[in-house]
Every structure is written in structure tokens, then in C-alpha cells.
Amino acid sequence: MRAANRAVSPLLWVPSGYFTMALCYVMLTSVTAIMFKNLGMGNGQAAQYSSMLILAYTIKPLFAPFVEMYRTKKFFVLCAQAIIGLGFAGIALAMALPGYMVVLLPMFGLLSLVGATQDIACDGVYVTSLDQRSQSLYCGIQSLSWNIGPIVASGGLVYLSGKLHTEWFHHDPGTPGPAWMDAWRIVFFIVAAITILMAVWHARFMPDGARAANTPASIGDAAGILGDALTTFFQKRGVWRMIAFAFLFRLSIGFLEKIGPFFMVDPPASGGLGLSNELLGIIYGTYGLAAVLLGSLLGGLFVARRGLRATLFLLCCAVNIPNVTFLIMSIYQPSSLLAISIGVVVEKFFFGFGAVGFMIYLMQQLAPGKYATTHYAFGTGLMGLCGLVTGVISGHLQQRLGYVSYFVFVMVATIPSFLACWFAPFYQEEGPAQQQPAPTPLAGAAHE
């Protein structure tokens, strides 16, 4: 199996595999919030519905052992991508139905489960088809390819929705409502076509992926492995402080993630900045994401030079303190695109710079042990749970408080992050020789 896999260059399937994963995730958990907002939902409902789609990605470690049991990992990748493609096409068609939202929400929920399964299977192909040297060699390509997904989804496709709405269908960009369906249907058909093409591509070039040595032979075995992984996780020294760190490190970011874009597109009369979808796509999907990538690169170099223990609290400051840019913008409501872009770039750059501390802490302190990869996934699952909880309540809270008071609340929400970071335990020795799992840039770990 391993010899056959080497006949196909990883460059033919690693970039496309991780791009497709990211495209699906960002469309479901971020872009849908903008679509709901365009269709006339209030901030509370739009943030709540899109955040609930994170749940499947949060709990995916719980059903990962069962995916291992059947057929090949490639089989699950291809099936998932075919279902996702057909699902997005079905969503585009369903938007023409009366009472379409009753149909759309269950379909989005089903696609999030399929998308999480795609992530499990694609990660499995990567880990079992490549040896440790190749995993390290292609890790940068893996991460970069994943981050192209938000550029296409949050940047290009949001931009396209605005262009289609105003220039192709000649609708008023400032009026939310059902008229936006025309543009979003085309966007979803495009996502469907891309995903189906990726499935065809991977059918030709993706290796099957080897079966793990401890692959469960039955549902009972899978449940036993999961139970043992959970038991050993909670037996770790200082585990509750680690859990607090994993859940709370990104608390303020969770409150900002959905509301930041809403603030950008809401009209000035409602306390927002009144940007169009096109400008939102450019600022968040290009400038903002470029700042995240640059910040992540420099943050990784900073940690590599000084060590995580010495830098973790500084990284927490980097993640949380620049959130004040949104408070400043909500007070002054600048009309200058340059000023708005600078505010977003500052916040995103320091988020990227500081967020590497979270991922490295999970790898070096929480994950090591018998089930390193599974325990790492538990940590990222806690991060996803934080995003789900904060996202569900953020829109309703903002509607009650208004933008200025809400962004003051976001700054107060940084305090638990600082406390969890200050008391985070360090029991593992730092060093390059330490065995670490190969991480996936999961669900907002390297972006928002």
C-alpha cells in the first residue's frame, strides 16, 4: 500500500484535498452567516444558525473510530465530496421553494456532518499515506492550501454575491430580503461544481490510505478505543486547567467572529459601517486573511526562537488586546476604507500571531501520550465548542447591547482568556525531539 501511494506525488492531492475541506467548512460556518443576513435575518438568528453548524466539526473525534472500520479512507473522501457537491446544488434549487428556510437549515446540518466526515477521512489519507518525513515536508503546503479556502469562500464568493446582486440582477444592495436568493443560488451552484470536480480529481490521484494498526474490527472495538481515549485524557495531570485553556483561550474571538462582519455590513444608522458584500469580501477575504497568514508565520518563528513557556502569555495578549480596534471603529464609525482595512488587518495580524500559541500548546502539553492525535482533536474540539457557544449567543447579545456596548463586552471577555493562559500547566519538556501529532488547520485554528 505505502509503495503504491508513493507512485502518485502528494502535490497532486494534498493541496486539492485540504482546499476542498476548507471550502466546505468556511461556506457552512462563516459564509452562511452573511447569506442569512442578506436574506433579512437579524444578527441574533444569523449568528445562531451559522454557529450551530460548527457542532458536527466539534464532535468529530467521537465518530472518527467508526469511519476507520469500513472500506478505505479515500472511499469516504470521495463519497463525502460527492454528497457535499450534490447537497450544495440541492440547496441552490431549494432556495426557489416557498418557505425555503425550513428546508435549508436541515440540509446545511446534514452537510456539516458530511463535511466533518470528509475531514476525518482526508486527514487519515494524509497521515497513513505519507511517512513522517513527508508529513513534515508537506505540512506547510497542507496549511497553505487549507487557507486558500477562506480566500475563495469569505473573499471571492462573498464578493461575487454582491456583484451578481447589484450588477447582474440589478437589485438594491442596501435592502436585505428574498431578492438576494438569485445571487446566492449561483454561488452555491459554483461551490457544488468545484466540489464535484475535486471528487473526480481525487478519484484519479488520491491514494487509498493505509489502515491503522489499531483499526477497530467492530462497533464494540471502536467504542472501546474511544472510551479508552476519553479515560486516559481525563487521567492527564492538570487536565482541567488544560481544558480551561483549550476552551477559553479564544473566548473573545468567538464573540467577535460572527459580529465583526455584521458590524461591517450593517448601515450606519444601526451602528455599523455600511459596507457592501463586495467590500466585505475584499477586506476580510484578502487583506484580513493575508494578515492572519503573515501573523501566523511570524508567531511561529517567535515561539521557535524563545519557546512556548516564555511566550504564551504574550501570545494571549496578541490575540486579545487588538480586539479594541472594533470598539474604536464602533465609536467613530469611520467611512474611510483605508481606516477600516487597517483596523481589520491589525486585529487579524495579531490574532494569527497569537493563535499559534494555542495550537502548539495542544500539541506539546495536552496531546502527548498513547492517543496523541485523538487527544489533540479533543483540544481542538473544545475550541470549536467555544466558537459554537459564543456564536449562538453573540448575535442576540449584540442586538440587546448595540455595537459600542457589545465591543466593550468583548474586551471584558478577554479576562477569562488571560486567567486560563496564566494558570495553564506545563508538564511536558519542550523540544523538537518530542513526538507530536500531525495537526489539521481545523475550524478556525488558523483563520476566522
Automatic annotation (TrEMBL):
Its main location: membrane. This is MFS transporter. Gene3D superfamilies: MFS general substrate transporter like domains. The chain crosses the membrane at residues 12-34, 46-63, 75-97, 182-201, 239-259, 279-304, 311-332, 338-363, 375-397, 403-427. Pfam families: MFS_1. It is found in: Membrane. One of its GO terms (cellular component) is membrane. One of its GO terms (molecular function) is transmembrane transporter activity. SUPFAM superfamilies: MFS general substrate transporter. Keywords: Membrane, Transmembrane, Transmembrane helix, Transport. The keyword Membrane applies. It comes from the Bacteria. It is a multi-pass membrane protein.
